[in-house]
Amino acid sequence: xxxxxxxPKKVFDEYLRLAALDAVxxxxxxxxxxxxxxxxxxKGDFSFNKHGFSYEECMACQTIFVSPRPPAxxxxxxxxxSPSARYFATTFYRxxxxxxxxxxxxxxxxxxxxxxxxxxxxxxxxxxIGGGYGIFAEEYQRxxxxxxxxxxxxxxxxxxxxxxxxAVVESFLENVRAEQLPKGPxxxxxxxxxxxxxxxxxxxxxxxxxxxPGDLFLFTxxxxxxxxxxxxxxxxxxxxxxxxxxxxxxxxxSLIERVGLRVLTVQTPGKLDMDILFNNRxxxxxxxxxxxxxxxxxxxxxxxxxFISSHGFSSHMFVVCxxxxx
Length: 326
Hints:
By secondary structure, the chain is α/β, with parallel strands linked by helices. It has helices at 3-6, 9-27, 72-81, 83-118, 135-143, 155-163, 200-210, 227-232, 249-258, 273-279, 287-295, 298-310, and strands at residues 45-50, 53-57, 64-66, 125-129, 148-151, 167-169, 186-191, 216-222, 245-246, 262-267, 316-322.
């Protein structure tokens, strides 16, 4: 798989351009609140500024995070009103939908189904938090007759999912009430959402309150220890307006266990790290990686990719956790 197949450069660059403008419009005059590391609570050290946001790194667990941080209300307004969020929800999704269906969502639906079978949860009702265009839900329902409900706060995306005949709760998870959900066993999933959360602790506490013992939460997010992020650092396109938290396999465990959930597995099954580095090789600061990426053949880059993914250093992280007996 190539980055261009799921993130065409021209389309993605336009989204990044709009996001840079929105950073000024929606956050230029925001108040800012200093925050400790969202994983372990340690005070972070300043690393760099980008798009008017200050990024810190925790020296205890290597989590990267935005601090000081604008209030949550500003982000809610940004996601519901901004041109870049609207562009991502409409133009970007529409132009990449089928490629992402084939390359991302169909394999992901199969992977999630296999994981749920392993844990005996493949018949549980499934809730896709931040379900976007609804492609995962469509692909998962193609594999099974289990009901999938989208929890999606964005009005454009919520309407798109309804037009597809999918059940939708139009809300941020933090505002979902237990009576809006069925009483049976549940699986919650979220994909590429965790890095956007204003307060991951509040999100997990709210999610935990909606879960019963044995319910599962599966999610993917960006790992700040991923080789592409570490090598490109502030030049990485992953370091952008919407991305506030970059956990890693070590720190995400600390966060999840701190709110009382049990981690079952953390993996980094990414496939794009070396392709991203190759596409941005002139921006790599470390000479070893810059020269390796420039000289390696496609086959050698693939071998490196397999090594990176299997040893926990891809920026694509997959986490499975469970609500224990209380």
